[in-house]
Amino acid sequence: MKIGLVTYAPEKVPGYDIHVFYSKWTNGEVFPAAKDMQNDVTCFCDAKALREDPSLVAVSPSGPALRKNRLFNFSFDYVCPTHPKYQAKVLDYVESLNKQQIEGVTLNLYHFPELEFCTCLRCTELRKKSGLSWTDWRAKTVTDFLKEARSRVKGTFAVEMFPDPIMARERFGIDFEAIAPLVDYFHVPLSSRDYLTNYWVDLLARDFLKILKKPVVVELSGEMLTDEKAEALLKTGSYLSRHGLMGVLLLVHDSENARQIARYAVNNSVFRDWLSKYEFPEMNRIIEDWAKIY
Ligand SMILES: [Zn+2]
Q1: Looking at residue 32, what DSSP letter applies?
Q2: Which end of the chain has fewer surrounding CB within 10 Å, N or C?
Q3: Is 186 left (phi over 0), alpha (psi -120 to 50) or beta?
Q4: How many CB atoms within 10 Å of residue 196?
Q5: 2-293 sits in which CATH class?
Q6: Residue 225: pLDDT above 90?
Q7: Is the dihedral of CA 161, 165, 171, 175 positive or negative?
Q8: How many Å lie between the centroid of ligand 1 and the Cα of residue 117?
């Protein structure tokens, strides 16, 4: 199993195998390509673009896909995924990243906001023309967008997803079967403020490994660490290391945050004894590699 980072800093950290840099954020901020890293692009959540042009928003019979619409539980504001100009802007950005020396591109939030979206005039017309059912049309729309993006990526291509293994196609138009041939791996974010309760991480990781027909990496949140949270995070990663994942990625604020996690593991003899005693060979190897550096 590889160990990696999802980070806001465009630099690699020793001891980590995979480096995912957030190059386009949900607030609309866009950054230059991070060299030799996987560049993670937020597609259809863009608060800045929506402020500048509110007509971009995805809509439903229960109102727009905005955080302020309390009929939904949105963490972000969503652009309609069929808006041609906005789509082109995202694809141009993906293309521009690939003119630089990058490892590859990961896409996130490239799908519909929820089950009821999008019922704008354009989406309604497009669906009618397609002759497909609501669910099939939405899935095809998302898959077609990913194909367009894929054709612009020279290196590794990966996608994140809202981590719903059962309802993803109906809710978001994410068709895992159709997407699998396009991607090199799937990136499953299982974000949490802490992993003191962690059975659900194991559960979702195993479900995704069963249904996804490409390698899988799981992302865990490693920011805002206390000793208690760091130990829970590392133990959760240890259990994950038994399932045949391609990797575990740790979301960190910056490189020091990543080094802090490694140092905590290396210097925690109780945790290291626990690893040896209960046999986590993959995680043990990672910590032993960290011990050579930290
Ligand atoms: Zn629409």
Answers
A1: P
A2: C
A3: beta
A4: 13
A5: alpha beta
A6: no
A7: positive
A8: 7
Percent of the chain surpassing pLDDT 90: 99
Q: How far is CA 154 from CA 37, 96, 148, 161, 255, in A?
A: 13, 11, 13, 21, 27
**80 C-alpha vs ligand 1 centroid, how far in Å?**
4
Dihedrals phi, psi of 235, to nearest 5 degrees: -70, -40
Note the pLDDT of residue 184: 98
Q: What spacing in Å lies between the alpha carbon of 109 and ligand 1's midpoint? A: 15
DSSP 151: T
Q: Which residues pair with 22 in a beta bridge?
A: 40
Q: Is 79 within 8 Å of 111 (Cβ atoms)?
A: no
How far, in Å, from the CA of 21 to the mean position of ligand 1?
29
- Tell me: the pLDDT tens digits for 106-149? 999 999 999 999 999 999 999 999 999 999 999 999 999 999 99
Give the residue extent of every domain in the chain: 2-293
How far away, in angstroms, is 239 Cα from ligand 1 center?
41
Question: Of 161, 175, 239, 228, whose CA–CA distance to 203 is shortest?
Answer: 239
Q: What is the pLDDT of residues 139-187, one digit of tens each?
A: 999 999 999 999 999 999 999 999 999 999 999 999 999 999 999 999 9
How far is ligand 1, taken at its centre, from the CA of residue 45, in Å? 13
The model scores a pTM over 0.85: yes
